[in-house]
Amino acid sequence: MFFGKGDEQKQKRSLLKRSIIATGLVTVLATGIVFAEDSNQLETVHHVYVDGKHIGQISDQEIVNQITQNKLQQAEETYEDIDLAIGENVKLISELVFNPTYNNSSIADYLEETLTVKAQAVELKIGEDVVGYFEDELDALKVVEDYKLKYVDDETLELIESAKAAEKESEGPQISDAPVEPTDLAVGESTILDVILSEEVSYSSKKVTPNEVLSVKDGLELLEKGTLKEEKHTIQEGEVLGAIASKYDLSLETLLKLNPSIKEDSLIQIGQELNVTELKPFVDVVVLKQEKKEETIAHQTEVVESDELFKGDEKVREQGSDGKKVVQYAIEIRNGNVVKRDVLEEEVTKEPVNKVIVKGTKVVPSRGTGNLAWPTVGGYISSNVGYRWGSYHKGIDIARPSNRSILAADNGTVVSAGYSGGFGNKIEINHNNGMKTIYAHLSSINVSVGQTVQRGQQIGIMGSTGNSTGVHLHFEVYKNGALQNPLNYLN
Known about the structure:
Oligomer: single chain
Number of strands: 34
Radius of gyration: 50 Å
Helix content: 10-25%
């Protein structure tokens, strides 16, 4: 710490204080002698002045000395580590006079009642606010130092303060608006350039009552707590208690405690004043630092339209990747919170690569050509249109394809897609040219009602749902509402 010799200095000061009390030099004595023509008839009288006011005259100055010494010695029993002195300016002026009169008793009583014991202390003032009084300047400096150490380690603070002393910088520098130059840092490193206070700090000697003198610990707690600034709020039209509390960062409960005459459901009047006391710090500890770090440059997503893909479809052409950059910052931290971060230098070490998404714009026509494509991937006709097993078979059955994909026979619009009794899972497509096709017994359906499909597009998977003797596709064709033989249209 910076005050390694403090204990030795305090011991010397304590010895000096005891010596002063013992010799009675705590009173200010001045002697003036008035000579008369016949000195054999003269006697000495001592005029007593307190703070410039003539109190009376005494026969022996020891009366004053004894009273002041007793007061100081009594106070020392309670405040033995504090420099004590009589608070008033007491003077004795001696004079040789004929037939003097004395007021020994009344003056002694006056001094006993009037004289006070004060501590010779150091006032710590920050800005316009007095933080408190301390035994000496070392203690006051220690309070400020310990307050700074809440936000920076002691080794860093000592290096900074030592550098300032070497450069003979004045105490309490202000934050400069001049451009900050970057220091030489490696990536991942940071350095603290200065630790200062946001307000000017001053120290001055003051005489105060001994119980006003604070310890370093008490002074630090007071500095941490801050000062209470009394504020009043005048109620405006439309305001409510909750909103007023929020405006001053208070809870409603705290606002009500500050104003005991009102309750949560009280009617408040326009122009009525409320107490809104806010705790504010005496001073901010400002840490100025620089840091150099590697950061990620997030890649962007680029969308490209293509008529090679159907509308609603998309694919990723380029996955994209983030970039890298090295940035050096000048940072201002107040009471542990970053309030300012300026970029001093920035270098891109890796350019980001955008992600590219291709979105289709191709619109599938909903009107069919009239020529139907084979609705499966291969396979053979296991049953034709016509009578079988005592009933009329309205379509053809296709079995054993290369895979079980069911394909739209032509362009069109899906008018139904779901389970339908003996058909099982069924899809019906209106080709918007008078033709309609039906696909039955599917194991699953891949389209929905209202969707436009293209000739050859997969619409489902072959299965054996409904009244089916095995895995196959039941395929029907209608034209202008009349059943048709699919073989007349398939190619």
